[in-house]
Structures are given as C-alpha cells and as structure tokens.
Amino acid sequence: MRSRLATRSTRVILAVATTVALGAGLTACDDEDLAAGGSGGAAASTGGSGGSGSTGGSSDKGGTDGENATDDKGVGQSCGANDLDLKITDADGGHYLIAAKAKSGITCQLSDSSAVVSYGSGEKSTTYPAELMGKPAPSSIKLSGSAEAFATLVTNSERAEGAPEFKQVKLAVSNDDTTPVSVDLPKSADFSAPVVSQWYSTAADAVINAN
C-alpha cells in the first residue's frame, strides 16, 4: 500500500513538474514572440516613416497648384473699374480711346455693355448705337495679363458751342458697375451729350465711324 502511495505521489509530482516546465516554455515562447512582434511593430513603424507618408504629402504640389490657380483672382467674375487699369488717350476728331487692362493677378470678364463716363455734377454718357458701329461687339471679353479691351468716347456728340470743359471724369465699365474710378483725359475737352461705344477687343474695332 505504501509503495502504491509513493508511486502515485511520484506520478503527481512528475505531472506537476511537467506542467510547470511546459508553462515556463510557453511563457518563454510568448515572451520571444512578443519581443519579435514589438520589434516587428517598430520596424513597421519605421517602415511607415521610411514610406515618408508625411514627406510625400509635403512634396505633393497640390497646395502649390492651388496657389497657382488662385493667382488668377476672380476667375469668371465680372470686371469692375477698380479691377482694371484704365487709360484715356486722344484720338482724331474729338474722339478719345478708352483702354482697359486687368490689374496684376486679376482675371475678369467685360460684358457687351458700354463704359459709363460721369462728369460735372453727375451727368453721364450714353451708349453709342451698336447698329452704327462697323461690327458687332463681342458678347464678353476676358481680361487677364496683357489682354486689353477698348471703347471710344465722344465727349461732344452735339458739337455744341461753349460746352463746359473737363479734364477728369469718373469711369465705370458698365451701368451695373458700382466701383467707378477717376481717370484723366489727355487734355481738357468739351462735354455735351457724350457717347461711348461698347467694349471691343481691338482699338480698330472700337472706332466710332460717325462724327
């Protein structure tokens, strides 16, 4: 009986020892796996850094392209006088040529309406009849960079004697323009029932044929 108990006790001790040994082995394996996994995770993290995800984003020219796109401020918008460099030069027979160019960085559209010249106590020009022009005005003119638009101003369409003279006028690019600017004429001119042609893309087309 004592021999059987001893044998059983021995078996129990061996089983416990085996279980402990197996547990220790599994723990060691787990530790190694964890260590390897951690190292692998670090490598993966390093790989992400090596992939330069953030660097790739900064080198992507999308932001720069966006900035380039906005260089043309106001793309598609209607031009106002304050968007343009406006100049009035002398032409033959009491006619004056109005030239319009977009300011740096601006792109806008001039409609087929005519410029409006205000003078004196608020008198305004009227539009010269389109049917009397040599050719129809374009429906719109895109102004950007060096592109220009032209119109002709006749300050004294009635050829009235003793009409008041002015050297500076307020110029709007259309009846809807709420941003007129002051522009000097090359010399003082008589003003009586002034008329202005519609906008054209060339100075030749903007010439008013009737005197």
TrEMBL record:
Domain of life from the UniProt record: Bacteria
Biased composition regions of type Gly residues, renumbered to the chain: 39-60
Signal recorded as keyword: yes
Region of interest (Disordered), ranges: 39-76
Domain DUF4232: 79-187
Pfam families, per database record: DUF4232
The entry's keywords: Signal
Signal peptide positions (record): 1-23
InterPro entries on file: DUF4232
Coiled-coil residue spans: none
Entry protein name: DUF4232 domain-containing protein
Protein species of origin: Streptomyces paludis
